[in-house]
């Protein structure tokens, strides 16, 4: 079963975020607390949304997808960015990943989103093969850029006075 996450799912979501980070060899970077996730997903101004995959027989949470809207100046429409897609190892191959992605695609169509995009690590061959089997296009000509920590602080300090937060 795929359903919208509720505030009662926050502990499970945080645990799966850490499991995903461990799989991606970056567990030390997964610092989000339950309080931060609760506010991001269920606060006054949600920053993101989540779906939960449950085993129909046991009711156990076996996966999640976390996404947020984005906007394209080229199409003039909103789109969806999938931040995380994770299915616990014991449930892989059971159709949960495809069901989560299909549910997200349905949200895109319902809400008029023209694009559904996500990132995948270049070494994650099982995921890449899975995404390609669904018809996903890998945009190899694009490179992800990121500023964080000191470089982000340094650039922010150069903002004109009127743009200072």
Average pLDDT works out at: 94
Low-confidence stretches: none
Task: Give the strand order, joined by hyphens, for the main sheet.
Answer: 1-2-3-4-5
Distance linking N and C termini: 43 Å
Shape: globular
The proportion of residues in beta strands is: 15-25%
What is the H/E string?
Answer: EHHEEEHEHH
Helix and strand content put the structural class at alpha+beta
Whole-angstrom Rg: 17 Å
Main sheet makeup:
5 strands, mixed
The helicity comes to: 25-40%
- Helix count, per DSSP? 5
Based on DSSP secondary structure assignment, what is the total number of beta strands? 5
Pfam families: Acetyltransf_1
Keywords: Acyltransferase, Coiled coil, Transferase
Domain N-acetyltransferase: 1-157
Coiled coil: 13-40
């Amino acid at each position: 079963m795929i359903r919208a996450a509720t505030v009662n799912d926050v502990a499970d979501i945080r645990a799966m975020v850490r499991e995903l980070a461990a799989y991606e060899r970056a567990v030390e970077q997964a610092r989000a607390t339950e309080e931060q996730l609760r506010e991001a997903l269920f606060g006054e101004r949600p920053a993101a949304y989540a779906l939960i995959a449950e085993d129909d027989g046991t009711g156990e949470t076996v996966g999640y997808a976390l996404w947020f809207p984005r906007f394209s100046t080229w199409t003039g429409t909103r789109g969806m960015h999938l931040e995380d897609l994770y299915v616990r190892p014991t449930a892989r191959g059971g159709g949960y990943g495809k069901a989560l992605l299909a549910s997200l695609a349905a949200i895109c169509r319902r809400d008029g989103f023209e694009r559904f995009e996500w990132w995948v690590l270049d070494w994650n061959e099982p995921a890449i093969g899975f995404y390609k089997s669904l018809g996903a296009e890998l945009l190899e000509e694009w490179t992800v850029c990121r500023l964080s920590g000191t470089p982000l602080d340094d650039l922010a300090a150069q903002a004109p006075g009127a743009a200072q937060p």
